[in-house]
Design a protein that fits this description.
The complex is a heterodimer of chains A (476) and B (200). Chain A has 476 residues and is α/β, with parallel strands linked by helices. Chain A has helices at residues 3-6, 25-33, 36-58, 63-79, 81-94, 105-119, 130-135, 137-143, 153-160, 177-187, 199-216, 242-248, 269-280, 313-317, 333-337, 339-344, 355-366, 383-387, 394-404, 409-422, 425-436, 438-441, 453-457, 469-475; strands spanning 98-102, 123-126, 147-150, 219-222, 226-228, 233-238, 252-258, 262-263, 288-293, 303-309. In chain A, a hairpin with a 4-residue loop joins strand 5 (226-228) and strand 6 (233-238). Classes of the chains: A alpha/beta (476), B alpha/beta (200). Chain B: Residues 100-199 form the LUD domain.
């Protein structure tokens, strides 16, 4: 790499992490759509969460104002990102933490692996984190002989089921209680076969299973929901208490955070602590939120490392329209309202970021060519924009990205030919007469010929009228 | 070039290529405060399965006695008012207890720093009457005593009362999960029972 390119915004590297699928969205979606159990599970879960979320959002008379404030704070963050990160670094360091910078997934995985190795531990407990999923940290740790233990219930279900996450908030949303019971019986040693599929019984099993691991593991890895530049304070929002266990019990805490998670001031938390729980789990407040600043003597981990992750975010920042995707606070409200996500589930998107936000974030992080089908994984209905608590205009972004998708040459040729014809009235009239011949072919024959068949695979060409407007006008 | 310079260089280049036009102004016309309503706190705590008990400063001990079985072992932070503890329980003051001792206790009793009525939240900040984070985490039952003067109406008011560099734990009901079919189920890793004793 030459010196010139070193400072240029860069996309996330291929071959590491989970931002790229192995097949296109339509192909993967087709398989998901054929699974009736998956569709029932998703339909039930998204319907439940939409109702809960709407009820608690309706309780706040100032939701619109909070949303506008959240959006404005994030816009300000992006405009001042380098300065805020430097300020955050200084404050965390002042408070006894150590800050590391990771240019990409490989960099971050190496930093975390080295930090864990230095402690001598061969196991880490993990708080659910999108950033570490994104970079494939678990695979990197396992390759280095370090066992990563996911402690969030849904992540645990995914890990024990040797499965992939399918939702930002609830990675096992595609599993119902009966399937979860089966996974626990199969993968957890010593589970009573009389275990019922009552959610409370399943949660109790996870509590027993993980307690010893929490108490005996010396290193934890977490993500972060927010980091306050002004004070150096990190915040993790959670429900189960697994986060508190990981953030409190080990000797060493390593937090991997996407650089866009920084907020300027302590006061800014008042906005996001109201927006996030109501938009994500549909609660007035999630059961537990932990905030810590560096190291506190005599309380919690005495070694704290913060890893600031780029991995394509600088490339997203470079695009004036596209950069608003970095406003995302990972609430998953857009997934829950999306008619496409509700039917296909998260796996079809290929990336750890599924749903509408994934359809705009993943292609930007990897470069559009590597996730070219995702900007089309939407009907552009706009429900995601309405639901987004920080006002990301996802439909605008989808259209913006569709412009950047490399289009097949046949499509460009056809469009150019159409343009040429429409510029020339005589040619256009001749073409219109020709389309009338299509009437003779009947319904079945109304697809376009190769290489344009892709266009009509999922669209019906309109039946040409008996008479064109021009002919009618001439005869009038 | 190290990763720090690389990342910062990339970000500066990204912004220079297409500079943002924002003024940086944040409209803060959302509610900063609200009318104090203790009943709302009780209702919101109860809604998320916390058990709320009203008491006066001189009836705290008898209130707590009714919540914990006789002979229960109770972890307490070093600065907890001694008068809050009933004689019926065995007190384990946290003068460096290890995690197994804390986890084996029947309950923990702490004070709080702030409570938020609108969200049904209590916040602990590690002060001497609240103690280390671990003591309110491992026991299965948490009794949290909140003074009326610590209750605020809204989240913004709570943040102005808190000191950022203290280790903060915001607690809204007992440990719960929404991970199974997105229904809220109480009782995962944190205390499965949360009692809030509200002094007024």
């Amino acid at each position: 790499m030459s010196q010139v390119f070193l400072g240029m915004p860069a996309t996330a590297p291929a071959g590491v992490g989970h931002l790229r699928g192995t097949e296109s969205f339509p192909r993967a979606a087709r398989r998901a759509l054929a699974d009736p159990q998956l569709r029932r599970n998703l339909g039930h879960a998204t319907t439940t969460i939409r109702a809960k979320s709407a009820a608690v959002i309706d309780e706040l008379p100032d939701w619109a104002q909070l949303r506008a404030a959240g959006s404005a704070i994030k816009t300000d963050v992006l405009a001042r990102l380098p300065e805020l990160l430097v300020q955050l670094e200084a404050k965390v360091t002042e408070a006894g933490g150590v800050v590391h910078w990771a240019a990409d997934a490989n960099d971050a995985n190496r930093i975390v692996t080295d930090l864990v190795r230095a402690t001598g531990s061969d196991r880490v407990i993990k708080v659910k984190s999108m950033a570490t999923q994104e970079i494939g940290l678990n695979e990197a740790l396992a390759a280095a002989g370090i066992e990563p233990v996911e402690t969030d219930l849904a992540e645990l279900i995914v890990q024990l089921g040797d499965d992939r996450p399918s939702h930002i908030l609830v990675p096992a949303i595609h599993r119902n209680r009966a399937e979860i019971r089966e996974i626990f019986l199969r993968a957890m040693p010593g589970v009573d076969p009389a275990l019922t599929d009552e959610p409370a019984a399943l949660a109790a099993v996870a509590r027993r299973y993980l307690r010893q691991t929490f108490l005996s593991t010396r290193v934890a890895v977490s993500g972060a929901n927010f980091a306050v530049a002004q004070t150096g304070t990190l915040a993790v929002v959670e429900s189960e208490g697994n986060g508190r266990m990981c953030l409190t019990l080990p000797e060493t805490l390593i937090t991997v955070m996407g650089i866009e998670k920084v907020v300027p001031t302590w006061q800014d938390l008042e906005v996001f602590l109201q927006l996030l729980p109501r938009a994500s789990t549909g609660e007035r407040m999630n059961p537990y939120t932990s905030m810590w600043t560096g190291v506190t003597s005599g309380d919690g981990p005495q070694a704290f490392h913060l890893v600031l992750l780029d991995n394509g975010r600088s490339a997203v920042l470079a695009d004036r329209t596209g950069r608003q995707a970095l406003h995302c606070i990972r609430c998953s409200a857009c997934l829950n309202v999306c008619p496409v996500y509700e039917r296909t589930g998260g796996h079809a998107y290929g990336s750890v970021y599924p749903g509408p936000i994934g359809a705009v974030l993943s292609p930007q992080l990897t470069g559009v060519a590597d996730n070219a089908s995702l900007p089309y994984a939407s009907s552009l209905c706009g429900a995601c924009y309405d639901a987004c608590p920080v006002g990301i205009n996802i439909p605008e972004l989808l259209v913006h990205l569709r412009d950047q998708v490399p289009h097949p040459r046949a499509e460009a040729t056809a469009m150019a030919a159409a343009g040429y014809t429409m510029d020339r009235p005589r040619l256009y009239e001749a073409a219109q007469r020709a389309t009338r011949l299509g009437r003779l072919a009947g319904r079945r024959g109304r697809g376009l010929p190769p290489p344009l068949t892709g266009w009509t695979a999922s669209r019906d060409l309109p039946e040409p009228p008996e008479q064109t407007f021009r002919q009618w006008w001439a005869q009038r | 070039m190290n990763s720090r310079d690389l990342v910062l260089g990339r970000l500066r280049a990204a912004l220079a290529a297409d500079p943002p036009t924002t003024t940086g102004a944040v409209p803060r016309d959302y509610r900063q405060s609200g009318a104090l309503d203790l009943d709302r706190l009780v209702q919101r705590l109860t809604d998320y399965r916390a058990q709320v008990h009203r008491a006066a400063e001189d009836t705290v001990a008898e209130t707590i006695a009714a919540l914990l079985p006789s002979g229960a072992t109770v972890v307490v932070p070093p600065g907890l008012p001694a008068g809050w503890l009933p004689p019926t329980v065995t007190v384990l003051p946290d003068t460096g207890l290890d995690n197994r001792q804390i986890g084996a206790a029947d309950a923990v009793v702490t004070a709080a720093a702030v409570a938020v009525a609108e969200t049904g939240t209590v916040v602990l900040d590690g002060s001497p009457d609240q103690g280390r984070r671990v003591i309110s985490l491992l026991p299965d039952r948490h009794v949290c005593v909140v003074r009326a003067g610590q209750v605020v109406a809204t989240v913004p008011e709570a943040l102005t009362r808190l000191v950022p560099h203290r280790p903060l734990t915001w607690i809204s009901g007992p440990s719960a999960t929404s991970d199974i079919e997105l229904n809220r189920v109480e009782g995962v890793h944190g205390p499965r029972t949360l009692h809030v004793v509200l002094l007024s």
